[in-house]
Amino acid sequence: MKKRSIIALLLVLTMVMMMLAGCGKKEEPAGEDQQEEQQEEQQEEEAEEEEDEENYETGDASLDNPRNQDEIGEQELLVVSFGTSFNDSRRMTIGAIEDALEKAFPEFSVRRGFTAQIIIDHVQRRDGEVIDNFGQAMDRAVANGVKTLVVQPTHLMHGFEYDDVIAELANYSDAFDKIVVGEPLLTSDEDFERVAKIVYEATKEYDDGETAICFMGHGTEHEYNKVYAQMQGVFNNLGYENYYVGTVEAEPSLEDLIEAINAKGTYKKVILEPLMIVAGDHANNDMADPEDPESWYSQFTAAGYEVTCLLRGLGQFPEIQQIFVEHAQAAIDTL
Questions:
Q1: Cα-flanking dihedrals φ and ψ of residue 296, to 5°?
Q2: Burial annotation 314-324 (CB, 10 A radius, 16+ → b, else e)
Q3: Which of 49, 64, 81, 222 could make an SS bond with 154 (beta carbons 3.0 to 4.6 A apart)?
Q4: ∠ CA 57-60-63 to the nearest 5 degrees?
Q5: pLDDT per residue over 22-75, tens digit each?
Q6: Within 13 A of 65's CA, how many CA atoms are on the CB side?
Q7: Edge to edge, what strands does the sheet with 178-181 contain?
Q8: Which of 218, 222, 282, 327 is catalytic?
Q9: CA–CA separation, 234 and 238 (whole Å)
Q10: Exposure string (b/e) for 279-300, b if CB count within 10 Å is 16 or more?
Q11: What global pTM score does this model have?
Q12: Cβ(274)–Cβ(236) under 8 Å?
């Protein structure tokens, strides 16, 4: 009996080991299947991204100067922008600001750095144009032996992007003999009033009492979202009573804007224009896309207004470019 019991026990153990081995063999294909599923999901996501690519023309990227050349001398003026994938707008806004700075400061080599990596990657993938991100532009300046570096942001305000630039500059505190940073567009009370007058002069032909002129800002969770309310206050103080400011992602919202315009009760038409340096994705899609029922164009049209969109960024105006030149000059004066 004892021998039989031992034999039976051995048989049971053998069967258990075979079952375990069989389970182990089954795990391998399961792992392979999981990898294949992950690859298929990744391919589907990539295909969806390709299908989501814009089917509209943004302009010729070859006309744009990415300003990432080397051997530039010991003085550099680095123009830092969020960026845009809209080629024509990039050239006519950011590029125009860079050109104005180059003309104003011929003793400096003007270079470019973008803070939006997703835009950099998109432009390179679609157009083959290579644009430095901010860190790459800084490393390039170090490699080129730059001793005096002036950083001039083209940001609208002291928001998160501007804060990130200041924070990253701390990593290069010992890399240059001198380094200074210029202010963004809307800094002083004088800046606000000048910008308000510039956009008024550019749109006053529409100011007939029956038209609301509305500017779309980006909006931010940063405390400096207050610049939009401040700009509205400047419009009001200057007597531009038919001028309004709203934002895409904060307050005042589109709903706030429509409510205010409806409450006026005298408007038949609406002019929409971005309060942004570039006329990029937000301007073309969130503001002006007639096929998007959520766009500002569609929402104002649904509210009963005749809508006209002006697709131009603030950077296109020579007067705005001049403000950046003056901000850069103020920074250079501190060297």
A1: -60, -40
A2: bbbbeebbebb
A3: 81
A4: 155
A5: 444 444 444 555 555 555 455 444 434 443 455 568 999 999 999 999 989 999
A6: 15
A7: 109-114, 75-81, 148-153, 178-181
A8: 218
A9: 6
A10: bbbbbbbbbbbeeeeebbbbbb
A11: 0.84
A12: no
Is residue 210 within 8 Å of 241, Cβ to Cβ? no
Closest C-alpha among 215, 220, 217 to residue 243: 215
**Can you spell out the DSSP letters for 82-106?**
---S-HHHHHHTHHHHHHHHHHH-T
Q: Which structure tokens are listed for 264?
A: 């006026």
Strand partners, 133: 114
- Omega of the bond leading into 252 within 30 degrees of 0 (cis): yes
- Identify residue 208 by its one-letter amino acid code: D
In terms of residues, how long is the chain?
A: 335
Q: Residues 286-311: what's their mean pLDDT?
A: 98
Q: Which pLDDT belongs to residue 115? A: 96
CB 89 within 8 A of CB 280: yes
Token representation of residue 237: 């103080």
Helix, strand, coil fractions of the chain, as percent rounded to 5: 55, 15, 30
CA distances from 208 to 164, 204, 237, 265, 306 (A): 42, 8, 19, 14, 14
Q: Which amino acid is at 112?
A: R
pLDDT per residue as tens digits for the range 247-261: 999 999 999 999 999
